[in-house]
Amino acid sequence: MRTNCRLTLSALLISSFLTGCGKRAQPAAPPPPTVSVIQPVAREVVEWDEYIGRLESPETVEVRARVSGYLDKVHFKEGKEVKKGDLLFTIDPRPYQAEFDHANAEYERAVSQTDLAKNDFERAKRLIATKAISEEDYDTKSKTYTAAQAAVRSAKATLDSAKLNLEFTQIHAPIDGRISRAVVTEGNLISSGVAGSGATLLTTIVSLNPLYLYGDADERSVLKYLHLRREGTRVSARDELIPAEMGLADEAGFPRKGYMDFVDNRIDPGTGTMRARGVFSNADHSLSPGFFGRIRIPGSGKYPALLIPDRALGSDQAQKFVYVVNAEKKVEFRPLKIGPMIDGLRVVKEGLKPGEQIVIEGLMRVRPGIVVEAKLWEGSPQTAVAN
User: Fold this and answer.
1) By the 8 A CB rule, do 186 and 72 touch?
2) Which long-range contacts link 220-223 to residues 24+ away (Cβ below 8 Å)?
3) Pairwise CA distance, residues 386 & 307, whole Å
């Protein structure tokens, strides 16, 4: 009886020992990491080149007097807009009114003397026919009449000049635009003439619509544009108007549309740049000459390209790359040749094919060769960017 109990206990101990020393169950393999992917947007694009410059007015007028005298009246409000023909200044007209009256009187006297000389000459023509006067008297009457006609023309010229001087005492706006301050106040003596000869500057006027924005392109860019022009993939502003876009210092992007209408005829040897001009509407007069602006123009012809968000790119020293999920759900390392940013997306010139899946979220969990579970990114550029 005791022997059987010992055998049973030994059997239980051995069985328990063997069970404890057996192989343990292996844990289940972790699931593949989940990453968000996008597909590149395929469309035709145009690269844009950006420059900076300042707005300038197409018309800038320095208002100066054409006659000298004392400034009698200022008729405009400083800093406001004026129309062509508006009265701006009045110079004391009394001396010029007196000159005009004197010239008018001289003209009337010359006309009266001419009428008298004409009558004498007509009478002399009748008398010479009957030999009633000598040829010497006839010649005298003829020359007197000719001299009187010349005197009338001289008096008329003097009268016209006096009339102009009288008109010039009223200074009118030569263009539409915004006027500056009155440099000279009432009661001051005004000197006439042209700039640089001592003529008094009264004020300035600048036109407001449209406005120019001048920019300078470096020599390498100019050579690129000439090459594209020869290829026929991009027109030049020398041939026709090309589109241009502008943004101000407080504006995002380039919301203002215009065109390029001028390219200079030479490279500036001092700066190595060539000047060009964009034209932009300012119908609401919200812009002013002197504003800083950013301008961009087409820097290439249209070409097909793939675009991806910049955040999908990685950097390996100077090499840009992305991770691509292939048909076997494995991650591939893909080096790229990239281009500029267009509408918030990066142009990929080489390294991708349409329809490929590019990892955009979960980049820290992937490496080349591993299997992943890919899901489409909610912010896919197919829906975020308009064609």
Assistant:
1) yes
2) 221/49, 221/299, 222/267, 222/274
3) 12
Strand bridging mode 41-45 / 69-74 = unpaired
User: Which of 35, 37, 40, 36 has the alpha carbon at shortest distance from 355?
Assistant: 40
* Order of strands, sheet of 170-172, starting from the edge strand that comes earlier in the sequence: 170-172, 87-91, 69-74, 189-190
Q: At which residue do the structure tokens 């048909």 appear?
A: 327
CA distance 100 to 42: 78
Contact between 127 and 133 under an 8 Å Cβ cutoff? The reply is: yes
pLDDT tens-place string over residues 163-209: 999 999 999 999 999 999 999 999 999 888 766 567 899 999 999 99
Domains, the chain: 34-45+303-379 (2.40.420.20), 49-58+208-298 (2.40.30.170), 93-168 (1.10.287.470)
CB under 8 Å to 116, separation ≥6 — which residues? 148
| Residue 137 buriedness (CB in 10 A; 0-12 / 13-18 / 19+) | middle
**Helix (H/G/I), strand (E/B), else coil: 370:** coil
3-class DSSP state of 383: helix
- Closest to 357 in 3D by CA, of 33, 16, 40, 101: 40
This prediction's pTM: 0.69
pLDDT tens digits for 297-308?
888 888 888 888
Q: State both tokens at 265.
A: 């005829």
